[in-house]
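Regression test case RT-17, inverse folding.

Input:
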């Protein structure tokens, strides 16, 4: 049941303090979702223990579970202005550098806990055996598609990165996709309608569909054969792509291991070309400087 519906149903039986919490959450759940129990209590004028008991009264196993429910409600609804307001409320005048880096560490930890190892293994095998690999992402996620596409283009012959195209161009890029192909769709809150449409199109054409997203509630999940969960911060003014990039790194490494000698031969040829055409600075050049 939706959190707000639960609150509305139980409102008549709440104590005075619980009603203060309920009314604040109902009107400001976009802000409450990122408050600690202590801060929420201070904001509405009740104790931290009252906030914890309120969460239990609603059937949650502690305040963090209720907080997660609030975050799920808004993960794809926050506007840019709301993100700025939430960021200011969360960090204020604190040590922003340490806070942001520690939160990114926490996102990687949660990614390890929540992503399916079986889906990851099956996704790598599907990629390794695909005729053509399509990588789709737009807006801020386009940077992830570019990074993954760069390395996969070194490993595979047929890799197509689709990002920042108009809707008509998207289908023009995808119209050859079929049963022997794979599409990796990347999208994080606020979710892209273009990603949903592209993955729906690919699925109808019989391609294997892999989603790289932040939650099983993402609209990409129901369209996918394999889901790779990478936690992303939906509230900060910019999207945190640390955990998604780590997942992509893992995909690349696992693909290299899966293909083994084939990839080794490919990179041996690349090293020869890089050296012949002086792509990278040599150690002797660095020592001269």
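Golden output:
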């Amino acid at each position: 049941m939706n959190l707000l519906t639960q609150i509305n149903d139980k409102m008549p039986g709440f104590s005075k303090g619980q009603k203060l919490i309920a009314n604040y959450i109902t009107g400001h759940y976009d802000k409450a979702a990122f408050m600690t129990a202590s801060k929420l209590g201070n904001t509405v004028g009740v104790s931290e223990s009252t906030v914890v008991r309120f969460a239990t009264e609603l059937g949650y196993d502690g305040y963090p579970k209720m907080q997660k429910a609030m975050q799920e409600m808004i993960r794809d609804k926050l506007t840019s202005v709301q993100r700025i307001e939430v960021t200011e409320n969360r960090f204020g005048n604190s040590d922003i550098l340490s806070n942001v880096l520690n939160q990114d560490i926490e996102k990687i930890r949660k990614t390890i806990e929540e992503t399916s190892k079986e889906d990851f293994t099956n996704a790598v095998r599907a990629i390794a055996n695909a005729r053509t690999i399509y990588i789709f992402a737009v807006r801020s996620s386009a940077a992830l598609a570019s990074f993954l596409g760069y390395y996969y283009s070194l490993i595979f012959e047929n890799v197509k990165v689709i990002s920042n195209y108009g809707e008509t161009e998207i289908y023009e890029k995808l119209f050859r996709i079929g049963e022997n192909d794979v599409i990796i769709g990347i999208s994080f809150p606020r979710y892209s309608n273009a990603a949903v449409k592209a993955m729906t199109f690919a699925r109808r054409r019989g391609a294997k569909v892999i989603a790289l997203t932040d939650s099983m509630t993402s609209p990409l999940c129901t369209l996918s054969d394999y889901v790779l969960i990478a936690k992303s911060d939906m509230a900060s003014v910019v999207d945190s792509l640390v955990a998604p990039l780590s997942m992509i790194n893992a995909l690349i490494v696992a693909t290299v291991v899966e293909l083994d000698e084939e990839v080794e031969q490919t990179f041996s040829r690349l090293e020869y070309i890089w050296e012949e055409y002086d792509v990278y600075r040599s150690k002797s050049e660095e020592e001269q400087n």
